[in-house]
Amino acid sequence: MLVVGDVVTDVVARHRGPLASGTDTAALIRTLPGGAGANVACWAAHWGCADVRLLGRVGAEAAAWHERELVAGGVRPLLVVDPEAPTGTVICLVDTGAAAERTFLTDSGASLRLEPDDWSDMLLDGVARLHLSGYLLFSASGRALVRTAVASARARGVPVSLDPASAGFLGELGADRFLALVRGVDVLLPSRDEACLLTGTADGAEAAAELSRRVPLVVAKQGADGAVVARDGAVVARVPAVPAAPRDTTGAGDAFTGAFLAALLAGIEPAKAAAEGCAAGALAVERVGGRPPTPAGVVKTTPAR
Questions:
Q1: pTM (2 decimals)?
Q2: What range(s) does the Carbohydrate kinase PfkB domain occupy (predicted)?
Q3: Is residue 57 classed as helix, strand or coil in its secondary structure?
Q4: What is the CB-side half-sphere exposure of residue 286 using CA atoms within 13 A?
């Protein structure tokens, strides 16, 4: 599987209760590797996909660290080092209350500067699925890359999946524009909020069904309500969530997507693959950060200062 998407540095600040404006709020703070595309790739590898590759763009200051972290996660990194922009950084504010809800402050940096010149048709050699992070659609160069990559994949008969990635950025892009950009995609993996935003429908399952009139298979993540699978304008399966005690919901949707795609590539039918995704999402919310556990025997590293 080839994943094309964002590689960023996450600064996760876990605090309890509301932020105290104008003064200090106590928090536990960690710097971790992240990015929706990179997270999906690592979870797919963790869930058993033997060959996962990631095309992303990073700044020179953190390129070596991100490459080491991806390799440690079982992913083959294909990183373009940007000569001008720094690696993207996301500040994840996580309320340590019962829901472990998070708010992102995002500086996309080099990750949104992926462009068609970073693409080669040879990237698809030996690839059985292309997965695109929706963050690519939030820059002109990224949108051009998506068009190039999808056309290349269709010419080779390689199926394409896409995760919309951000309801906030999606609202700025616009539903009609997004749906035009994802023509040629065979699997769409939105969150409930993203599916509702794209359709103007308040019910997550109805939104998934409506989207499946535009994309052959829609698997909509419903958070604590699990997931719904839709085809041809109808919901064909409802998959329950796996119980979990949340610590940090950062990357839970990426975990679902990675595990779902790994299962799909293994020949598992979509509803059962969605159950695998729910299991990964439950594991993800019980961890801090957006990546799966590091395999035994692999030493974790920290970014150079």
A1: 0.92
A2: 2-295
A3: strand
A4: 11
